[in-house]
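Private note to self, pasted from the team thread so I don't lose it. Backbone tokens:
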């Protein structure tokens, strides 16, 4: 089963065609400007957030040196079971 849509009718008047072309170009320009503005805001916001995190991370070692009871961040904690080869293991 095919879907048949009526074809859009183009106006034959040259002034209407030129005006519709101009309106289309203006709409595309506005969308481009708003898109670039949003991209700029996201880029600047991301740069500020990255700088903020780097600044906070640079200050952390001085604060962490005052609390020696904290475990090292490279240590993984958990429970482990040794599985010996040759014995069937139920998963």
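Design output:
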């Amino acid at each position: 089963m095919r879907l048949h849509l009526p074809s859009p009718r183009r106006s034959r008047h040259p002034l209407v065609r030129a005006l519709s072309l101009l309106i289309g170009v203006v709409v595309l320009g506005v969308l481009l400007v708003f898109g670039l503005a949003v991209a700029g805001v996201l880029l600047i916001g991301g740069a500020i957030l990255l700088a903020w995190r780097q600044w906070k991370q640079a200050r952390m070692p001085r604060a962490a040196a005052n609390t020696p009871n904290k475990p090292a961040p490279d240590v993984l904690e958990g429970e482990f079971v040794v599985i010996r080869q040759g014995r069937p293991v139920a998963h």
